[in-house]
């Protein structure tokens, strides 16, 4: 099924490329282009550098809505197919197909979010806003990791209390893992951003 999904995605992408490829056809001709000086005519005309790029940008601007529409429909088809695959996998109790269906569903959801959010974000923000957004996101993730570490310590203390109350060895191991996880989370979230930004 994984190979079938790969083949379907690959063939869909190939169809999209052929469908939205350039509509203009270029043929070889024996005529000399205008910008090449002719014999006896040494006058070279000044050409604007963006004369060729305006056609490309107009073509891209015309194709972008079609590509977005078809891309979102293809991703929606993949999501619905993954739901069907996962439903049958749950009925047949096949773990591998459940994993494939879940992965395709999550991937298509993330792709839809990226296709909808990233163009709006890129077109409406400038360099200063992006810098502020990245710094705010980094600070948010650091604070979330600190709160998670505190929660891990509190849960570890509760499980350690259960170990002393019931004398169950698994509770001791779980509390120890929570303490170690809280320490690692605190150290990494404190020093790694500083280390990465200073390099």
Count the strands?
Answer: 0
Query: Which assembly state applies to the chains in this document?
Result: single chain
Helix content estimate: over 70%
Number of helices: 5
How far the N terminus sits from the C terminus, by CA atoms, comes to 44 Å
What value does the average pLDDT take?
79
Q: Structural class given helices, strands, pairing?
A: mainly alpha
Unreliable segments of 5+ consecutive residues: none
The structural domain count equals 2
Helix and strand succession? HHHHH
In what range is the share of β-strand residues? under 5%
Indicate the overall shape: flat
Largest sheet: none
Over the alpha carbons, how many angstroms does the gyration radius reach?
A: 29 Å
Signal peptide: 1-28
Transmembrane segments: 70-91, 103-124, 144-166, 178-196
Keywords: Membrane, Signal, Transmembrane, Transmembrane helix
Organism: Priestia koreensis
Quick rundown:
This protein has 199 residues and is an all-alpha fold. It is built from 5 helices and no strands.
Write the layout of secondary structure elements.
Layout: H1 2-19, H2 51-92, H3 95-124, H4 127-166, H5 169-198
Helix pairs in contact: 2-3, 4-5
